[in-house]
Design goal:
691 residues; alpha+beta; Rossmann fold; Methylamine Dehydrogenase, Chain H; eight-stranded mixed beta sheet; five-stranded antiparallel beta sheet; 39 strands; globular
C-alpha cells in the first residue's frame, strides 16, 4: 500500500537569533480550539491525510485482526462485567454504582438505609442512547445533600468542554439551565440552593468560580472568584467538617487558597496564605483546627496545624522527612489517617486522636503493593473504614477495617472471571544506577516460566512528568503480554515523585534530560541483567510519556524493537512557544518558557522530539492520537509522523492512527478502551513475532 505523504511547505521559524525549518507547521489552524469542538472545521487536506494514515495503519495491522479479537476477548474476560462497587452511606441513603455485561457505562443506584427498595438514578448507556452520540464522556455525578437532585456533566466531543445539568431525581426532569464550557466538576452547596462550578475561558483554562442558583433558567450566575494569572487554574471544594468552602488556585509549582464559611449568603472569599513561587499548600479544617499540607521549608511536605485562619499561628503536626513524600489527611472523629511515599512505595499511618499515638497500617505480606483508604459513610463518627490494596500480581482486595479493635473483614475482592493464579507471576523491585549515580526504582513483573537469559522481549513503561508517580498496582490487561513471555517493567524515573519532591525537581525544567537518561539507563540495565537483549525492548508511554518515548528513540534507537506512543507530546518546542494553547502558560515551571528565556529555549530545542528527528534507522513505531484532544493537539504527532517518514532510513513499521471521535483519554466506554489496548498489544506482539 502506498505510504501516506503529508505535503511539505517550508516555513523558517526563528527565536532568540536561532532559525530552523518546519515543513509541516502549515497544518496548525489558528482556530484550533474550535476544531476540537467541531471536526467539520478541520482543514480538508489534513483530514484526508489523517484518513490515509488510518487506512495505512489498518492495512499493516490486517494480519492482527484475529489477534486483536483474541486479545479483546481475553482482556474483557478478566473483567467481572456485572459488578458493583461498595456502598457509601449518606444521611438517608446508601449509594453505589454497578456495571452490566452488556453495558459500557456505569449505573448509579441507591436505597434508603435499612430498606431493600433499590432505585436507579443514572444509567450511562441509556443516556448515551438517548443523546445519539458516538463519544460520551461523563465528568461528574453528584447527588445533592438533601438527596433530591442529581448534578451531572457531559462531554460529547472528547474536547473536555463539559456541560452541566441538574435533574430532579423523582421526576427525572431538568430543573436548571444547561451550563456550558465548564471543567465538569460540580459542588452542591450544603443548603442545596446552589451549585458551584468552574468555567473554562477561550483558551480552555479554568480561571473563574461561579455560583448557580438551582431552578434558574435565565439569570446570570454569580461570579465568586476570578484568577487573574493565566498560568493558574481554579477549583472549589468543601472542608472535611463541612464548615468552609476552599477555593484552590495553582499551577504545577505554586498554589494559593481562599476560604469562606459554608453558611455565607454572599460569599466573599478570604486569602489564607499569599502565593509564593515554588510553594504548594492545601488547608483543610477538622475538629476546630486547621491543617496545612505544605512544602514551605519542607521539600517533601509536612503538615502544620493552627486554631484559626484570622490570626494564624502554624505549628508542626507532621514533620518533614528527607525523600519521603508526606501525603494528605483523612479525618474521622477519633482518628487521622495519612499516607507516605518513599522509594516508589506507599504506606498508610493511623493516629489515635485521644492518645496522639500513630502506627503504620500493614495488611499485606507482599514487598511491593499499593494500599488505599476510603470512607464507609458521610458521618465520620465511626471507627470503620475501607482499606484496600493490590500489587502487580494480586488483584484488588478491600477490607472493612475497625481502627479500634483492628478487626478486618474482606468485603470485596477483584474477581478475574477467566481465572488468575498470582503464584504464576514474579514481581521484583530493584534499583539501578543512572548516568549521574542516582539510584532509580524499577518494578518488574514476569511469568514464572519466562527465562532470564536475554531471549524474552520486554515492555518498558515510563512517564516521568508533573510529579506523577507510577504506582505498582494490579492491571489485568497486562497479563495478555506477560502470559506471552513479554516482561513488563515500569521505570520510576525522575519527573515523578516516587522519591519525593527532589525526584520531581531533578526531572523538570533544565533537568528534564534526567528523565530520558533514567529511562535509557533502565533499558541498558535490563539488557545487562539478561531480562531482554539489545533491540528487544518495546518502549511505551502516553502524553508526557510520549515526549519521553520521542526523546529516547531519537537518542538511542538501537535499544528498541519498537515504541508505542499514545497522544504524544512530541512537538514540545512549538507548543511551548505558543502561549495561547490551553496548557502552555501553566507549565512554564514544568518545562520552561522558551519564548522569553533563551536558556529554556536552547534546552527544549536540544531534546524536543520533532526537532531532533535524524536521518537514521528507527525501530517499529505505533503512534496514536485523538482529533478532539485539547491537551496534546493532534497536529503534534501528525507532524512527528510526517517528518519521520521523510527522514528515517529503515524499513520498519511506522503506523499512525487518529481517533476521529475521541479526546486525550481515547475512546469513551469500556469496550472502546479495551479495543485501544488490544490494538496496542497486537502491535507489540506482531513485532515480537508472538501471538
Amino acid at each position: 500500500m502506498k505510504v501516506p505523504q503529508l505535503r511539505k511547505k517550508s516555513e523558517i521559524k526563528s527565536c532568540h537569533n536561532v532559525t530552523w525549518e518546519d515543513n509541516y507547521s502549515w497544518i496548525h489552524q489558528k482556530d484550533i480550539l474550535e476544531v476540537l469542538k467541531d471536526k467539520n472545521k478541520l482543514n480538508p487536506e489534513v483530514k484526508e491525510y489523517l484518513e490515509q494514515e488510518n487506512e495505512y495503519a489498518d492495512y499493516h495491522l490486517r494480519d492482527t485482526k484475529d489477534l486483536q479479537k483474541k486479545l479483546f476477548d481475553e482482556i474483557k474476560g478478566r473483567i467481572k462485567l456485572d459488578d458493583e462497587s461498595l456502598p457509601y452511606k449518606d444521611h438517608t441513603y446508601e449509594y453505589w454504582t454497578k456495571t452490566t455485561a452488556k453495558g459500557n457505562y456505569s449505573i448509579k443506584l441507591r436505597k434508603k438505609i435499612d430498606t431493600q427498595n433499590i432505585e436507579e438514578i443514572w444509567n450511562g448507556d441509556k443516556e448515551k442512547l438517548k443523546l445519539k452520540t458516538e463519544y460520551f464522556g461523563v465528568g461528574d455525578l453528584e447527588v445533592s445533600n438533601n438527596d433530591k437532585y442529581l448534578g451531572y456533566s457531559l462531554d460529547l466531543k472528547g474536547s473536555e468542554y463539559y456541560t452541566i445539568y441538574v435533574r430532579d431525581i423523582k421526576t427525572n426532569k431538568i430543573i436548571s439551565k444547561e451550563i456550558k464550557e465548564t471543567t465538569g466538576s460540580i459542588l452542591f452547596s450544603l443548603d442545596d440552593k446552589y451549585i458551584f462550578y468552574s468555567k473554562l475561558d477561550k483558551n480552555h483554562r479554568a480561571r473563574k468560580i461561579y455560583r448557580h442558583k438551582i431552578g434558574d433558567f435565565d439569570a446570570e450566575d454569580k461570579l465568586i472568584f476570578e484568577e487573574k494569572s493565566e498560568a493558574f487554574t481554579v477549583a472549589i471544594t468543601c472542608s472535611s467538617d463541612e464548615k468552609y468552602y476552599f477555593i484552590n488556585t495553582s499551577d504545577h509549582n505554586s498554589s494559593e487558597q481562599y476560604y469562606f464559611k459554608s453558611d455565607e449568603l454572599n460569599p466573599s472569599p478570604k486569602l489564607i496564605i499569599k502565593r509564593e513561587k515554588g510553594i504548594l499548600y492545601s488547608v483543610n479544617s477538622w475538629g476546630g483546627k486547621f491543617y496545612n499540607h505544605t512544602n514551605k521549608n519542607a521539600e517533601d511536605f509536612k503538615i502544620d496545624i493552627c486554631d484559626n485562619l484570622e490570626n494564624q499561628d502554624w505549628k508542626t503536626f507532621i514533620q518533614a522527612k528527607n525523600e519521603v513524600l508526606i501525603g494528605g489527611l483523612t479525618f474521622l472523629k477519633n482518628w487521622i489517617i495519612r499516607g507516605e511515599t518513599s522509594g516508589a512505595l506507599d504506606k498508610l499511618f493511623v493516629r489515635n486522636i485521644s492518645t496522639n499515638i500513630e502506627k503504620e497500617l500493614v495488611f499485606s505480606d507482599e514487598n511491593v503493593y499499593v494500599p488505599g483508604v476510603n470512607l464507609i459513610q458521610r458521618d465520620r463518627n465511626t471507627d470503620e473504614v475501607y482499606l484496600g490494596y493490590s500489587s502487580p500480581k494480586t488483584p484488588s482486595r478491600v477490607y472493612k477495617y475497625n481502627l479500634l479493635n483492628k478487626s478486618k473483614q474482606l468485603v470485596k475482592e477483584q474477581e478475574i472471571p477467566s481465572g488468575h493464579n498470582k503464584n504464576d507471576y514474579i514481581v521484583e523491585r530493584i534499583e539501578f544506577k543512572s548516568h549521574d549515580g542516582r539510584m532509580v526504582p524499577l518494578t518488574i513483573t514476569r511469568h514464572k516460566k519466562t527465562k532470564i537469559d536475554g531471549s524474552a522481549n520486554l515492555l518498558l513503561y515510563g512517564y516521568g512528568s508533573y510529579g506523577n508517580s507510577m504506582s505498582p498496582s494490579f492491571s489485568s490487561t497486562r497479563l495478555s503480554l506477560i502470559n506471552r513471555d513479554i516482561i513488563w517493567a515500569t521505570a520510576h524515573i525522575r519527573g515523578g515523585m516516587e522519591k519525593g519532591m527532589k525526584w520531581w525537581k531533578e526531572g523538570k525544567l533544565t533537568n528534564k534530560k534526567n528523565t530520558f537518561e533514567d529511562y535509557i539507563y533502565a533499558a541498558k540495565y535490563l539488557i545487562e541483567k539478561n531480562y531482554t537483549s539489545k533491540g528487544g525492548i518495546i518502549g511505551m508511554g502516553g502524553s508526557a510519556g510520549g515526549l519521553l518515548m520521542g526523546a529516547v528513540v531519537n537518542q538511542s534507537p538501537e535499544l528498541f524493537l519498537g515504541v508505542i506512543m499514545a497522544v504524544p507530546f512530541v512537538d514540545s518546542l512549538t507548543t511551548n512557544l505558543d502561549h495561547s494553547l490551553p496548557l502552555t502558560i501553566g507549565e512554564f515551571d514544568e518545562f520552561g518558557n522558551a519564548k522569553d528565556n533563551k536558556k529554556h529555549f536552547d534546552y527544549i530545542f536540544s531534546y524536543a522530539p520533532y526537532n531532533n528527528i535524524k536521518k537514521m534507522d528507527y525501530p517499529h513505531m505505533f503512534i496514536t492520537t485523538s482529533l478532539s484532544d485539547n491537551r496534546v493537539l493532534f497536529d503534534e504527532p501528525t507532524k512527528f509522523t510526517a517528518k519521520l517518514r521523510e527522514l528515517k532510513t529503515d524499513n520498519n513499521l511506522l503506523l499512525f492512527k487518529t481517533e476521529m471521535n475521541a479526546g486525550h483519554g481515547g475512546k469513551s466506554g469500556r469496550d472502546g478502551a479495551i479495543e485501544e489496548i488490544s490494538i496496542d498489544y497486537a502491535f507489540a506482539l506482531k513485532i515480537s513475532k508472538k501471538n
